[in-house]
């Protein structure tokens, strides 16, 4: 055996990850794939990598030094289970199986338990950054045992993206913790993209900016607090002219957004955990709505506002939108971190949330200057209940909230949908409220279903005899 690490699955992600591994000092990389041709192609195209090829899982295992470490990069779902089963046949106790696919974290929890029962380590590793990231340096979110991390950690650190001299990888937690955090990352990505899209829509539909002018606005924003990969590519996309028509590309792309499902997982999981991630949910729903061609066509003639409000200070409005975007983004990230907090509690993970923000600073889609502030917030207060109350974000929200309200008001008056901005603002105002109308809802529940209520002024659980004399009785909790 000569290889210290192996990759199973040589489609685009696996090949790139294998090349990244091979390019780092000290690594000899074993590779295999269900279909032999993919192995041959990789070896042929990249002789410089010194890959150790195998055409069966048994040979692959035999080519690895112990503890054997293999990263699976196959289609998430049944393919992953099939490869895990094959590896378990030939691996030995102490070896390490890493799933780098986009697995649902509950699958990872199930697989980790099954593989651990055989004495083999199983690591579910979220990988973000697409093909380019896999090749040049992704953000890596591994979950698994401390024992596995000892062997795997240095290897992952060698291939991860680097931000301010530090590799974008950390041992996130046990079993499904890494894939959970990757899932929330994707949910936040949905929200971030939706908020940017709403900002763009306001610049165009309220101010009448052209895509080129909007591109300038985003390029300008990218020089300040909003500096991020997504803002940067937004400016590039908006500037791009379609070769066929000479129109801005954004005007010829069909306005129906696709999705691969990780955003929905984030929302479904949040519903199960009882965590309000309304900003992320609105982003997922906005994509669904965009793709409902029949409902949209049927609804096109519904009445809208007679006239749009005039904006007499366009530059001021642009700045308001920037502030609204920033504030909404803070809310969306806070919701994502709330979900991580709740997931950690439910599944027993020790997740360092500041570290999570740190490993998202490079390599992944939501990389942004802003993440430094989240890391600092958790570094200063590791037990922070919500990001919103970290002094650095209180300052942001204080500076932005009036502008945020103005933007949502103008959008509502103009009939421009801003589900992300308004959901984030509603979440913010709900959290600020001393009393919520939930009191009324609880009383209604008591009325029709005897669901009982607690009181603000004394301990206990109560029920009002709504269909009787309406006196209050103490109820069983
Ligand atoms: P795909 O998701 O397209 O999967 C193709 C690979 O799966 C091929 O190697 C294929 O082998 C193998 N495979 C299948 Br399909 N069924 C198999 C089975 N029953 N047994 C063994 N191997 C099987 O590849 P990808 O786009 O490179 O993505 C790999 C993983 O990385 C996925 O889980 C994906 O979600 C995740 N991921 C992707 C990105 C991205 O940006 N694309 C980012 C992060 C993570 P074959 O050659 O024999 O058909």
Can you describe this structure?
- 46% of the residues are buried.
- It is built from 20 helices and eleven strands.
- It has helices at residues 12-22, 36-45, 57-62, 78-90, 105-116, 130-136, 146-159, 177-205, 211-221, 229-239, 249-252, 262-273, 278-290, 293-299, 314-347, 353-359, 371-380, 391-414, 419-432, 438-449, and strands at 5-8, 29-32, 52-53, 69-72, 96-99, 121-128, 139-143, 162-163, 166-167, 462-464, 472-474.
- The protein starts with a strand and ends with a strand.
- The chain is globular and about 75 Å long.
- A hairpin with a 2-residue loop joins strand 8 and strand 9.
- The protein binds nicotinamide 8-bromo-adenine dinucleotide phosphate.
How does the SSE layout of this entry go?
Elements: E1 5-8, H1 12-22, E2 29-32, H2 36-45, E3 52-53, H3 57-62, E4 69-72, H4 78-90, E5 96-99, H5 105-116, E6 121-128, H6 130-136, E7 139-143, H7 146-159, E8 162-163, E9 166-167, H8 177-205, H9 211-221, H10 229-239, H11 249-252, H12 262-273, H13 278-290, H14 293-299, H15 314-347, H16 353-359, H17 371-380, H18 391-414, H19 419-432, H20 438-449, E10 462-464, E11 472-474
Parallel strand pairs: 1-2, 1-4, 2-3, 4-5, 5-6
Antiparallel strand pairs: 6-7, 8-9, 10-11
Helix pairs in contact: 1-6, 8-12, 8-13, 8-15, 9-10, 12-13, 13-19, 15-18, 15-19, 16-17
Bound molecules: nicotinamide 8-bromo-adenine dinucleotide phosphate (NBP).
